[in-house]
Structure formats: C-alpha cells, structure tokens
Sequence to fold (383 residues):
Amino acid sequence: MFEKALRGGIKYWSAVLVLALVILVGFIFYLNQLHEGLAVTGMSRDVSWGFYIAQFTFFVGVAASAVTVVLPYYLHDYKVFSRITILGEFLAISSVIVCLTFIFVDMGMPFRLFNVFLHPAPSSPMFWDTVVLSGYLILNLLIGWVTLGAERKKTAPPSWIRPFIYLSIPWAISIHTVTAFIYAGLPGRHLWLSAIIAARFLASAFASGPALLVLFCLFMERYTGFKPGRGPVKALLVIVTYAFSANIFFILLELFTTFYSGIPAATHPLVYLFMGLHGFKELVPVMWVSVVLAIISLILLLVPSFRERTFFSIFAAVGVILSIWIDKGFGFVPAGFIPNPMNRITEYSPTMTELTISAGVFAIGLLILLVLYKIAISVREEV
Fold:
C-alpha cells in the first residue's frame, strides 16, 4: 500500500516539499545545539525542562486520544466511527513519533537514550514511559496497517488482530497516566504534586485529540475525495464537549485546593502563571489567552445550535486545542520549576533554536501524518 504515498498531485508534493524544508532547517539548528550544548536553549539549572518536554507532554495526550474512536467502534460497534477510526490510529502513530523525537532533541547527549534499555530501572516512571510509548507505537502500526489492508481487500480484519485492538485501549490510557506519574512523583514541585494530574491529562487528551480529528475530517471533506460525513464530526464534538468540561472542572478543583489551603509553596506557581510573582510575569499574557479561549470554546460547545454549525465548530475545536496546548504544552512544565525549592525565581522562555527545532519536529509529525492519510484516502477511493 505504501506505493500510494508516491502518487499525488501538485498540492500533495508541494506540501511534502515544504515540510521537508522545515525539517531540514530544524535539523541544521539541531546540529548547532548538539555542538554547542543545551546552553543555546532557554533552559537553565533551575528550569531544566522547557519547550521540548512541554510539547512531549501535549502530544502524548494527542496519541492517547485515539482510544476515543477505537473504543466506541470496536467495543460497542458504533458504526458512525467506521470511516474515521483509521484516522485516529494514524494520528496516534505520528503523535508518538513526535513525542519520541522531542525526547531525543531534549537530550544533551542523545545516545544516552540507549541507557534506558542497556540499564533498565523498573522503579523509574521514565523507564515505563519509554516502554508504553514504544509498545503503543507498535500496536497502532500493526492495527492500522492490518485493518486498512483488509478494507482494501473488502474483507473483515483477521480474527487474530482483535486481541491487539482490545489491548490498545487500556494501553492508550496507560501512556498518559505514566507520563503524569513522572510529574506527580517529583517531591518539591508543588504544582505537580497532585493525585489528579493523571485525570487532568486524560481529560485534556480526550478533548484536544478529537478536536484535531474534527479539523482533519472537515479539511478532507472539503479538499479530498474522502467524505467522513457530518455524523462522525458531531459525535467527536460531543466527546470534546464532555472531556473539555471535565478538564476545566479538574483545573478548578486544583485552584480551590491550592488557594483555600493557602500554602505559599503551592500557591506561588499558580500566582506566577496568572498574576506574576515578585515582578516576574513572563507567562501571564499567554495563560490568560488560554483562559479566554477555554471560556469561549466551552460556551460554543455547550450550546447545540453553535456546536452543530461548521463555522462555530471549527472555532471551538481550534480554541480547545490552543487552550490546552498553552496550558499543558507551554505553561504546566516550566511553571513547575518556578519558584525553585529555595524560593528563587528563574524565568524561562524558548529561544529561536528551540522554536526552530520544534518546528522541525512538528513537520516530521505532519509529514508522517500526511503520508499515512494519503495512503488511507487512496485506499478508500480505490474501494
């Protein structure tokens, strides 16, 4: 089936070329980072996880969100998702590759990644995160390719693939749960020291991932021969509505617990994020953008007459993605280090090197997704 990715029109190859150029520029900046070290980034001794790890955290959620279409379709025979389940699985594949690439570029010496396998430490959440992400990537590659191949032959998927499909459902939940444990298990980081971090991560994942799928479905409906139909989009928007509502509820729980307790070490990171602390307020503007987007998007999603109109559904989906990306993929990680355990504030903002390398990683994910979707659409058109 891969030969279908080698055939396309001028728009397809133009997109491939643009993404390849962005990847090349990002790789050049990465070589400079590899030569000079992480000193070329905005990270420091006090803020040792920055934009790379923040993006890793966000895209783990996008990868896990495939379960929102896999579970209803395979466990409950929800036929509405029959045409888009493969899109969710392919989105998971590209997202996991993006996650692993961000870990790679975040390492000052990338070959140290092999130590995870050469010297495994089962007591470390990072070891388990590597295991579950790698396993999830293999599962989705296997399931997506086998089911798409069966569809191309106009036959039912082979029976042996069913156990792997069922295994992928709890596995999807595990990848973001283990990621949450990496943060929640760190003492001295009060922003992360919470029992509901995993629940927050999953709720935000089940909102941002389906919102991305909504945008992809609407794009393909308009610009390709693949027509997902309005049914899957409406069902996805309902999932986004419930998941995003739960995400906001969990955040409000955190705010109440933190500020009602009045413990300074717990309140300082949130005060820094939304109001600034001791004159330091680098992240305040972007965090309030996240809040405004969350409020507007939630209103559009909760009102059916808005949610069912294409223009408002697109705005709501984009708002949900950006709001969660800013909150989880930008503010959550650096704010966990601010202030440090000695109550010292060291602000963080990504440098041009980090942003350019990150753009290259995003382009890798988009290129993989473009190729996989091209294959899926070509098979659908052929059938």
Q: What stands out?
A: Residues 212 and 317 are 7 Å apart (CA to CA).
